[in-house]
Predict the structure.
Amino acid sequence: MALQKESTPIFSDATAGTLRLIAYLALAAILMVLDHRNGWLHRARYASAAAIVPIYKIAAAPADWIHDARTAFAQRRQLIGENRQLREALLLAEARLNRMDAVTHQNERLKQLLDTQQLLGMHAQLARLIDVQLGPTRDRVMLNVGAHEGVHVGQVVIDSHGVMGQIIETLPHASVAMLVVDPEHAVPVMLARTGLRGIAHGTGNADQLVVPDLPLSSDVKPGDQWVTSGLGGRFPAGFPVGTVTRLKHGPSGMFLEALLKPAAELERSGEVLLLREQPDPVGPPAPAPEVGPPDSLAPTAVAQPDLRKDRPHPALRARRFAPPPPPAGEGDERAARVGGGNPASSSGRAGTGALQ
Amino acid sequence: MNRMRAQGWAFWAGIVLALLLMLIPLPATIQPLKPYWPALVLIYWSLEATDRVNIGLAFCIGLAADLLNGALLGDQALRLAVLVFIALRFGSRLRFFPMCQQALAVWLLLLNNHVLQALIRAFAGDPPMPALSWLAPAVGAVIWPFVFLLFDDVNTRVRGKGAKAA
């Protein structure tokens, strides 16, 4: 009896509670769907950034304290050792830079010669990581610069060793970057040694990337370095992405998969660079300017039928097959050597002859 | 009145602490084992002060946690609402369990929470969580006695002080 008396109000309470739970579950489900479709969360986070970012700073404080304490109590000898190591690294880096300077100058000259002035004016902005964990995995990092400092979504994040990721969300004074190891992240890459192209996907594992769908016959070995290929226009070309640690067959057995170790020190980087200006999107090269003498110089009798048949101008053909203008004296000899036994160049020679 | 206010301070301090602990990173190897702190705090309060916690409050705290965590708005709100609902329903029984049984119940609650999280991630199309993270509820259950004792201590002190002041 006593049980029954008590159970009635509890039961009605419970029904009300269940109804309320169902209402809240429905509300949460609606919120999740809307957020997934429209990205409400980002807008809400942007609006409440003034309140949120200080909380991140507080949450990051213990890690900073630990780091400071470690620095403060580090052994002197250890510091000296570290100092020496860093000095050596600096020297090495400087030597490398000097070499790079020379190579850059040479490269610039060559590019000017080729008339392709696609030099990227790259400006980088230094940013510090705010050490907090976003989401259940560690594939996103928070940086201490945001929209007010000129950061925008899509900017590339690098450290001194290679590509780290890209900005996916900006707050007024902070921003969130997706690391290359995030399973939703992919970078167009190129094998530095052979130029083989691929796409490096994140695996969710902090020290692994994967380049799937490589042909079985492709020339890849452990230790090879992959760099960004610049295709797609988001990542500038030539930044290290990772080195091959292992090769294995893909799930279908028809392709190779290369497992990479990311080049950037994702676990250790404290300061990173944001690339300011994105390179121009890569497209087909501009059509080559027409070379050769003007049409007026060509003998009209030959030119007319050729134009009707949509073939290159005979003068152009001649220029293409002709040997370079011979220096005085040995010209005849060279022309004979180049054209020896080759009908195409002999016709070319004939063309040049006609021209002259 | 004063006592209630003091208890309120203790409650909100616990929630804020739990949210901060959720954000603080750990070394990468033990990162997946990190217990879900807001759930532990809410379980304690739904056992000890049934009038302070309700589903709506849990929902709002979950929304705040989502806002901080930046994963999916409504995810933690849903999970905490379910958790508090179950904890409130069985709270009057759980409170009198010996500590090890209570820890077992907490493990089940956290495991349920983890399953919900995995389901939500699957629906949202996110990659699955690392396998090691399935041990996180067990870690939460192991930590539970300490959390319980700590909060109980704070709670009795606050209540005692509040009573004296009143």
User: Anything to note?
Assistant: Residues 2-165 of chain B form one domain.
